[in-house]
């Protein structure tokens, strides 16, 4: 089997080009939306309306290059970097707390700043975790039959979660937690073991909320944002105003009213609100059809990959993308309390954009090497 | 993973496929969940949210509505507007504060530092740089193309007759809302509806580029036509001012009514003040000068109240009440009456045959107190109080003016007999001037009590009457017969009694004098009197009724000497004004 694989991988195929096109299209749409959402604010804050747009465009180019580059890479080689990827991720997450390197914003330390470049390690950690878990399980699939066999993945996931939680960043923690459970579930963990893991997590949620008073305030603000329209409820109210202004068909691209500094984080975490305002409900529907298409093709690639590692790798990356999209949409529509979580591929933020596109490149790579195998057969 | 091929040792395809299917199902469910939430917010909740959002997207500059004019009954302007403009600045929309401040300071004649302070005060959405300036001044900023600076109409209230009827008209606040008088009472009609200039701005109020300001025009207020005749008002004010000066009195008041429908023709409170120069800095002074005492203050009426007592007696007599005094019955000539151990004396000493063997008509002529004690006691509390109620004492007259006093009427149940006896000649009772004028009118006009009115109609811009107030009959007081009998007696008072100084040859003036001692802290205040006279003409068909009050006159103090001549002069003025012919006979 090893032999045959080696022979086949010399001639990778075209892969799932629809998946590739969809990802590039979504990210390009994201660049346009960032331009629209950020122009006014950038003009006021930096005296340059294209400030975020230019950054996003650069991120797009790097991301696209990374995506194409990684698709040429034999994904089997990634097996070897599973453990290093996790260690690098944990190290970067820890670096956030090093004075002088960590950059704080809005009461949270989520970035590493090196000169003019800021990196958000939590975005890298998600990919690092998937690489590690996929590599670990595929080495010996029998491992997930026992809880003990799952322990290293659990430890890695909890470690990442704890470090992100300390920043603090509740929503990315939730995202990684969900990703961890999803990976275990996809890997085929027994239902009993899954229950053993899920039940303590359910108990952890109220404790985590009680730990930080601001979480409770946000929770109550989410129940009735108009109880504190100037403080906790402000962001959600502004997001809802944007959605409402969009109605069915939207006010038109670039015509958002809320982006004139009413909606905070309009170009990043709440870009979906601006999109909903400018393109209306049908615009949101179309956007999530595109996102859904990517998710569906991603899972198809996983299912067809023909080996367990490719299955977990493509499935995990796709799952991380899907979960984050869903969480962001739930936040923007006020279904869960507002937290800082970007809409992957769309929101402004280069770490997220480049890492997500790189991950998508890996998924695309899986599809390329799978197809070649089938063709030769 | 196709065709049931087992690709991984110890792992069946079916498990992985099931797991993947479960994950896709869960994600689909999540997507459907938030998409339905988006649908709910964007399509169903949308209206309510948009209404809330609209408010934060715009900043407003007010456009003041033209306040309605107030006219007298013949269309003479009593309160109007002078066109004026206010220059506003929205600091957040100002681009070059220092440059604009120097232009504005020069153009508007303002202090540069003050203007700059206003242009840089970002804590307020909008501030006025100059209030109510003329159009030429405001227009100077137009060519300068200043960002964030605007001017809008903001008229100045103007009263062409200055102090005329100032307490009745009232004034407006600095912001143009009615504060007192008719201005306040009818503010909802006069005010109109404010307009707005809406600017689309960002969060902090900076104008959006390319956004156009929406102009919502103001709706001007409606005009009022009063029942007042400014000429009669002017005559009455002139007469009362002369009395005020002559007797160095504390105050002088008058009210002129049309007894046929109780429309108020003049209402005078002196001293007064110029409505165009309101002493806003001295609140105590302003409060006292702007008070419409005729409506809002009570006093002890004294002998003018005998009209009511006499009316009650005549009506009861005509109805056959044996306790009432017949018109030819003769009262006891004694100067005193002892009621419940209290001695009540007449103001006259009854010496040398004065006040002897009087009939009711003569008792009115002489204003003899004991006779009216007799009448009150003879009729009894119950009957007498029924008449007080019919004459609307102890209740508001219902005039369309805010702050009306209801007077003080001791409750029938706890009333001491001696106090009751005094009510008969107008003591131990307090009334407003308006109440007494209305009661007098209702006694002599055939017995009809109407609600007095100040506003005759609400008129639109083009002069069409939107709402006409109509005389509102509140109730009957006495019969027509009793009324005319009383009137002939009151004509006698002016012809040959204490009201002689109101007599005008050929015009059948009738009336009754009153002189009341003032009380301070429950004791009679030495040397402080209220001299009054209520009169009307012609006696057989009253058309003009005037109540004249001089408060604390110095020197003379009898109503007959101080107040009656005032009524005469007012009536003479009216006769001149309308060139009224004397009576035929």
Rg of chain A, rounded, reads 21 Å
The CATH architecture name of the largest domain in chain B reads 3-Layer(aba) Sandwich
Q: How would you classify the helix and strand content of chain A by structural class?
A: mainly alpha
Largest sheet of chain A at a glance?
A: 3 strands, antiparallel
**End-to-end Cα distance of chain B:** 130 Å
Helix run count of chain A: 13
Tell me the radius of gyration of chain B. Answer: 36 Å
Biggest interface goes to:
A-B, 50 and 44 residues
The residue ranges of chain A in which pLDDT falls below 50 over 5 or more consecutive positions are: 1-10
Strands of chain A, total number: 3
CATH class of the largest domain in chain B: Alpha Beta
Give the strand tally of chain B: 24
Multimerization state: heterodimer
Which range does the strand content of chain A fall in? under 5%
Q: Provide the domain count of chain B.
A: 3
- Characterize the biggest β-sheet of chain B: 6 strands, mixed
Q: Bin the helical content of chain A.
A: 55-70%
Explain this structure.
The complex is a heterodimer of chains A (377) and B (585). Helix content of chain A is 69%, strand content 4%. By secondary structure, chain A is mainly alpha-helical. Chain A has a three-stranded antiparallel β-sheet, covered by helices on one side. In chain A, helix 5 packs antiparallel against helix 6 (147-166). Mean pLDDT of chain A is 86; it is low at 1-10. With 585 residues, chain B is of the alpha+beta class. Chain B has three domains: 13-44; 59-226, Penicillin-binding protein 2a (Domain 2) (Alpha-Beta Complex), CATH 3.90.1310; 230-276 and 287-578, DD-peptidase/beta-lactamase superfamily (Beta-lactamase, 3-Layer(aba) Sandwich). Chain B has 19 helices and 24 strands. Chain B has a six-stranded mixed β-sheet, with no helix packed on it. In chain B, strands 12-11-24-23-22 form a five-stranded antiparallel β-sheet, with helices on both faces. In chain B, helix 3 (97-108) packs across helix 4 (112-119) and helix 12 (306-318) crosses helix 17. At the A-B interface, helix 7, helix 10, helix 11 and helix 12 of A face helix 1 and helix 2 of B.
């Amino acid at each position: 089997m090893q032999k045959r694989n080696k022979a086949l991988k010399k001639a990778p195929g075209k892969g799932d080009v629809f998946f590739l096109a969809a990802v590039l299209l979504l990210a390009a749409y994201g660049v346009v939306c960032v331009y629209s959402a950020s122009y006014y604010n950038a003009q006021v804050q930096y005296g340059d309306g294209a400030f975020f747009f230019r950054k996003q465009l650069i991120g797009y180019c790097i991301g696209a290059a990374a995506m194409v580059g990684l698709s040429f890479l034999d994904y089997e080689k990634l097996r070897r970097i599973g453990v290093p990827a996790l260690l690098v991720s944990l190290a970067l997450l820890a670096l956030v707390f090093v004075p002088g390197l960590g950059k704080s914003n809005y009461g949270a330390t989520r970035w590493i700043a090196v000169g003019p470049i800021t990196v958000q390690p939590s975005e890298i950690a998600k990919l690092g975790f998937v690489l590690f878990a996929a590599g670990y399980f595929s080495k010996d699939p029998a491992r997930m039959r026992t809880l003990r066999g799952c322990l290293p993945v659990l430890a890695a996931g909890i470690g990442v979660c704890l470090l992100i939680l300390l920043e603090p960043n509740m929503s990315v923690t939730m995202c990684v937690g969900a990703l961890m459970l999803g990976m275990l579930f996809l890997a085929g963990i027994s239902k009993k073991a899954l229950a053993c893991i899920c039940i303590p997590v359910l108990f952890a949620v109220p404790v985590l909320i009680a730990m930080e008073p601001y979480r409770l305030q946000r929770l109550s603000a989410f129940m009735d944002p108009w109880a504190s329209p100037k403080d906790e409820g402000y962001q959600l109210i502004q997001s809802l105003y944007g959605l409402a202004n969009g109605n069915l068909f939207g006010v038109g691209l670039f015509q958002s009213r809320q982006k004139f500094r009413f909606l905070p984080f309009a170009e990043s975490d709440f870009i979906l609100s601006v999109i909903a305002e400018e393109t209306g409900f049908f615009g949101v529907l179309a956007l999530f059809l595109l996102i859904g298409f990517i998710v569906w093709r991603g899972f198809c690639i996983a299912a067809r990959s023909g080996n367990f590692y490719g299955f977990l790798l493509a499935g995990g990356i796709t799952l991380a993308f899907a979960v984050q999209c869903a969480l962001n949409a739930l936040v923007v529509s006020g279904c869960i309390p507002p937290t800082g979580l970007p809409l992957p591929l769309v929101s402004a933020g280069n770490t997220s954009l480049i890492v997500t596109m790189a991950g998508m490149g890996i998924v695309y790579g899986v599809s390329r090497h799978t197809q070649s195998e089938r063709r030769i057969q | 993973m196709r065709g049931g091929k087992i690709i991984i040792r110890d792992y069946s395809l079916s498990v992985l496929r099931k797991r993947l299917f479960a994950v896709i199902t869960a994600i689909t469910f999540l997507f459907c969940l938030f998409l339905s939430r988006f649908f709910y917010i964007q399509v169903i909740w949308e209206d309510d949210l948009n209404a809330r959002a609209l408010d934060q997207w715009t900043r407003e500059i007010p456009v003041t509505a033209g306040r309605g004019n107030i006219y007298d009954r013949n269309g003479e302007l009593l309160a109007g507007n002078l066109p004026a403009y206010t220059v506003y600045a929205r600091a957040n929309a100002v681009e070059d504060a220092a440059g604009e401040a120097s232009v504005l300071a020069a153009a508007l004649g303002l202090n540069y530092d003050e203007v700059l302070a206003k242009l840089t005060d970002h804590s307020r959405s909008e501030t006025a740089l100059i209030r109510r300036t003329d159009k030429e001044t405001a227009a100077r900023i137009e060519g300068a193309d200043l960002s964030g600076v605007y001017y809008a109409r903001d008229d100045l209230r103007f009263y062409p007759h200055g102090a005329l009827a100032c307490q009745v008209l009232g004034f407006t606040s600095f912001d143009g809302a009615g504060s007192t008088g008719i201005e306040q009472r009818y503010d909802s009609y006069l005010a109109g509806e404010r307009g707005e200039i809406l600017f689309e701005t960002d969060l902090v109020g900076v104008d959006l580029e390319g956004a156009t300001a929406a102009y919502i025009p103001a709706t001007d207020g409606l005009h009022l036509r009063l029942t007042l005749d400014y000429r009669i008002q002017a005559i009455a004010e002139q007469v009362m001012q002369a009395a005020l000066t002559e007797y160095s009195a504390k105050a002088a008041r008058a009210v002129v009514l049309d007894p046929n429908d109780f429309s108020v023709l003049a209402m005078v409170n002196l001293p007064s003040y110029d409505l165009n120069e309101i002493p806003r800095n001295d609140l105590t002074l302003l409060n006292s000068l702007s008070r419409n005492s005729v409506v809002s203050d009570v006093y002890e009426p004294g002998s003018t109240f005998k009209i009511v007592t006499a009316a009650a007696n005549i009506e009861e007599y005509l109805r056959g009440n044996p306790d009432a005094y017949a018109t030819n019955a003769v009262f006891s000539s004694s100067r005193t009456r002892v009621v419940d151990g209290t001695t009540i004396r007449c103001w006259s000493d009854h010496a040398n045959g004065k006040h002897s063997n009087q009939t009711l008509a003569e008792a009115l002529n002489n204003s003899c107190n004991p006779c009216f004690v007799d009448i009150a006691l003879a009729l009894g509390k119950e009957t007498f109080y029924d008449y007080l109620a019919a004459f609307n004492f102890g209740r508001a007259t219902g005039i369309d003016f805010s702050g009306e006093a209801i007077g003080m009427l001791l409750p029938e149940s706890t009333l001491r007999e001696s106090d009751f006896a005094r009510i008969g000649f107008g003591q131990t009772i307090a009334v407003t001037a308006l109440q007494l004028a209305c009661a007098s009118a209702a006694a002599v006009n055939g017995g009809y009590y109407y609600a007095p009115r100040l506003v005759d109609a609400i008129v639109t811009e083009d002069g069409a009457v939107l709402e006409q107030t109509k005389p509102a009959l509140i109730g009957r007081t006495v019969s027509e017969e009793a009324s005319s009998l009383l009137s002939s007696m009151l004509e006698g008072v002016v012809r040959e009694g204490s009201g002689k100084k109101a007599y005008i040859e050929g015009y059948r003036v009738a009336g009754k004098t009153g002189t009341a001692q003032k009380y301070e802290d429950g004791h009679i205040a030495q040397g402080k009197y209220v001299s009054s006279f209520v009169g009307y003409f012609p006696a057989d068909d009253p058309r003009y009724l005037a109540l004249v009050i001089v408060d604390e006159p110095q020197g003379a103090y009898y109503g007959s000497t101080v107040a009656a001549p005032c009524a005469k002069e007012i009536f003479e003025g009216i006769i001149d004004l309308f060139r009224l012919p004397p009576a035929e006979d």
